[in-house]
Amino acid sequence: MATEFHNLQELRHSASLANKVFIQRDYTDGTVCKFQTKFPSELDSRIERTLFEDTVKTLNNYYAEAEKIGGQSYLEGCLACLTVYLIFLCIETRYEKVLKKISRYIQEQNEKVYAPRGLLITDPIERGMRVIEISVYEDRGSSGSSSGSSTTSSSGR
Amino acid sequence: MITRKVTRKWEKLPGKNTFCCDGRVMMARQKGVFYLTLFLIVGTCSLFFIYPLPFVLVDLFSTIKKKKNVLFVFSIPVFAVLLFVFVVAMLLRTSFSDPGVLPRALPEEANFIEMEIEAANGNVMAGQRPPPRIKNVQINNQIVKLKYCYTCKIFRPPRASHCSICDNCVDRFDHHCPWVGNCVGKRNYRYFYLFTLSLSLLTIYIFAFNIVHVVLREYRNIFEHVVSLTPHCTVLEVLVCFFTLWSVVGLTGFHTYLISLNQTTNEDIKGSWSGKNRVQNPYSHKNFIKNCCEVLCGPTYPSVLDRRGVMLEDSTRPTPSDASAASTYKSTNPVSQTTKSSAPLIPNEHTPEEAKPSIGAGTQKSTSSPKEEKPPSPTSPNAVAPAVIKESAH
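Output (structure tokens, whole complex):
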């Protein structure tokens, strides 16, 4: 019996943090940023395995794109060196652009997939790119008191 | 209406770094040797631009017969100025940037890792020492041991190491350089290398220039009347350049060798990939060009520290540094204490007992960091090997 939340607002108002699951880094390909796709047992009853694996694989692809060493990274490096790295005051690096994409993706995944299931993903950059932190929420009280708790918590905000 | 001063995250960061310009600049605590480096470079170059450069230019101008030689003569000081600007820019970039510090684990993550370790180790008999905390990973068919850092409460990623001078785990830790006043790690290694390379070129340039000038002077006997200033400037410049040459050019050569093998100074000193027991460097592409390209032209990694993010005073204030809803709901996590782990939900705000010493050090640092600290007298490193490698023996 999984707890059902319809959106992030409801999650915030009527849920309490029960547990945190940490997805560790996968170092088999070296020092590139990649996370393990092994499904943690704590999430067994909360989310489907395929959805979770899709999220992690997409994140891994984004990081691989950011850290790709190819023509564009050489160009960026040489151009930056010639301008004594002052060019980074004006333009964004490719890595920063991809990080913004990742942040948007995580937000979208949280709204569409994870919050309705009472879960919340933290952007890995906030944890030093070491782990993907997934917070597991439990319903605080019965459904009858959810409206009351939402008003009290909204006044507290 | 009293405006509350915002507290930025750099003020609460554990570790022994000093921060300037409201978190934009990040350096080690002892900056004395860095000031010396800056003084030597700027001082010697200023002396060079006063003498002998103008005199030699005037001399060359007077002997120019063709117009195209004017361009050549002009290029001499322009090249010197550009090189000097590049050297100082690289030095400042190396010294002021985040070398790739890994933030410490928050209490929940630390507990999670502890539980994993206990599960892996099983039952330890009373009186027996628990086994060392090591994780084995396979990288490119090589077993690499990841050690646990007791200070940061994380398993260090491959190639990361804990700098005891700065009290931080640094990713792709190379060494702690007192001349630069900072650790050299993943994020600032290329700037450090470009600094040593360009400084070598500048030193050779000034040295050669002075030697040529002395030879020409002896030959021509022109500056007889300018006797008092001449010898002292030249002698000083030649002296500084001579000693700098041996150390900096040697260091540049050493780092070129390391880059070609995709190794760090730390790994070289420890002999991690020396080849005994058929251990090879799993990070090397076995190709000189590829290794160089990865280290020098690789992507510019972002800092994960978020030094200038605003600390939450209370749970209701959103962080202006990240306006997305993603961070808003993270920052307004319900503060109910019904969590299974007895750890606070909002990081860095309430100090659990175990983290008090590190936070105490952080607040001490935050009161003194805006002011310029009087650096203690630095230990004078060996001129030939200015790199200082310190690693706490965890």
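The radius of gyration of chain B is 26 Å.
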